[in-house]
Amino acid sequence: MRIGAVPYLNVRPLIYGIEHEIILLEPGPLADRLRTGELDVGLVPVAEVLAHDAYDILDGVAIAARGAVESVFVVHREPLPALRRVAVSPVSRTSVWLLRVLLKRRFGIAPEFYPRPPGAKLSEHEAMLLIGDDALWYAQRNPTQARWDLGQAWVETTGLPFVFAVWAFRREIPRAEMMSVAPRLRRACAEGLAHLEDIVQNASESEPSFLRRYYRQCVWYELGEGEIAGLRRFQEWLAEEGLIPACHDLRFIP
Q1: Do the strands 220-223 and 251-253 form a parallel or antiparallel pair, or are they unpaired?
Q2: What's the pLDDT tens digit per position in 116-127?
Q3: How far, in Å, CA of 214 to CA of 8, rounded?
Q4: Do 244 and 227 lie in a common domain?
Q5: Is residue 60 located within the same domain as residue 167?
Q6: I want to staple 69 with a disulfide (CB 3.0 to 4.6 A). Which of 28, 86, 151, 198 is the partner?
Q7: Who's near 28: CB < 8 A, 6+ residues apart?
């Protein structure tokens, strides 16, 4: 079975021990290949499963936030309610949609979004959306820069966790194959969480102390009742904003 995921630090606990089986792709291409059938299973940003009623979601495992996530945030020079333009990451539809609904719900604004150029500096923009490893890198090197953490903003707005990514299975896959792969993915997550210190020590992209805090306090790897409620709330708001055609039932693999 062809399995894909994004090549970010927050994914490593979910693919611990099965890294050699995973095709690593940026979020946009990953979602595209899953949708077209070039992949069978993908750890995809939730925008893909909320926009297309074509997947079954692995229950129990996710990349989620229950507060500040520190790897998805907006840095800004202008006050948030006054923003007119935001440079956004071109690779993550989920984070862009999350920012859009939060700005609308919190401040009643709909600024222009445009692609953030490679190597962009905040001095050149009113605000920039940073995600993934780029965000972690920026946070460590600019600790005093004003930033709006979207995980924290979502929890403050809704009282619910936010789910950034889930394991999605194409619905055309035979059920027996889904049920054979699902335990392996859950086991990889359990092993990854049990070996977080190994993951931290083997990561060259960040300081160990920062990563320990990130893995243990910022990102959550559970998909429980609260996370599912947050997922459904996000789906409802996306439909209300016209970002997806309509809400559909979310189907889970137990």
Answers
A1: unpaired
A2: 988 889 999 999
A3: 13
A4: yes
A5: yes
A6: 151
A7: 90, 91, 92, 93
**Domain range for residue 180?**
3-64+162-211+218-253
Residue 76 belongs to a domain with what CATH number? 3.40.190.10
pTM: 0.95
The whole-number average pLDDT for the span 180-197 is 97
List, for residues 12-41, the tens digit of each pLDDT value.
999 999 999 999 999 989 999 999 999 999
- Rounded to whole angstroms, the Cα distance separating 27 from 13 reads 17
Q: What is the dihedral of CA 10, 15, 19, 25, to 10 degrees?
A: -50
- State whether residue 164 is helix, strand or coil: strand
* Nearest alpha carbon to residue 200 among 1, 12, 6: 12
Q: Is 119 left (phi over 0), alpha (psi -120 to 50) or beta?
A: left
| 101 & 31 share domain | no
Neighbours of 60 (CB within 10 A): 18
Q: How many CB atoms lie within 10 A of CB 39?
A: 22
The total of structural domains in the chain comes to 2
